UniProtKB/TrEMBL annotation:
GO cellular component: nucleus
Organism: Kryptolebias marmoratus (Mangrove killifish)
This protein's name: C2H2-type domain-containing protein
Cross-referenced Pfam families: zf-C2H2, zf-C2H2_4
Membrane-crossing segments per the record: none
Lineage of origin: Eukaryota, Metazoa, Chordata, Craniata, Vertebrata
Length: 173
């Protein structure tokens, strides 16, 4: 078996424009509270809260507002990781996962917390960290009312639903 074709299309210098706002004025989502440094980034984010989601996953039924989000989600079921790092053997299901990882190879960490001076190589790690200070939880469970500040905590929580212990999950909410 030959490995799947690598879709390593990352440019050497990737500039992330839509990082959460560290200064003022932040552009905040009225639905979930996530803030952005640019109004256009918030506008793109607001589409995620649209009530109509015409693209449904054939495995779990989850709906998406754009086909590209469905394609990316389907990789969670198939395990496909077409994006590969050119500096190490790691592979990723999404281009954004590769971009975040690629920053981890850099000597200088691009994101610094102004509240506690911690530094991070990825925008997603920085976002998750800032939620510790704000109490914001951007990763809601679609099966119950719990929310989490880190995607890994949500995944661990979802395992409780998968093994039939949803009642245990709800009782701890």
């Amino acid at each position: 078996l030959s490995p799947p074709k690598c879709l390593n299309v990352l440019a050497e210098s990737v500039k992330l424009l839509c990082f959460p706002a560290g200064g003022s004025p932040p552009y905040s989502c009225p639905h979930c509270g996530v803030s952005y440094s640019q109004r256009g980034c918030l506008r793109r984010h607001l589409v995620l809260h649209a009530p109509e989601k015409p693209f449904a996953c054939s495995v779990c039924g989850r709906g998406f507002i754009q086909r590209r989000y469905l394609v990316q989600h389907e990789r969670t079921h198939t395990g496909e990781k077409p994006f590969c790092c050119s500096l190490c053997p790691k592979r990723f299901a999404s281009r954004s996962g590769l971009v975040d990882h690629r920053n981890s190879h850099a000597e200088q960490k691009l994101y610094s917390c102004s509240l506690c001076e911690k530094s991070f190589s990825s925008a997603s790690s920085f976002r998750d960290h800032t939620q510790l200070h704000t109490g914001q939880k951007r990763h809601p469970c679609t099966l119950c009312s719990k929310s989490f500040n880190r995607p890994g905590l949500l995944r661990k929580h979802l395992e409780k639903h998968a093994d039939g212990s949803a009642d245990k999950v709800r009782s701890t909410a």
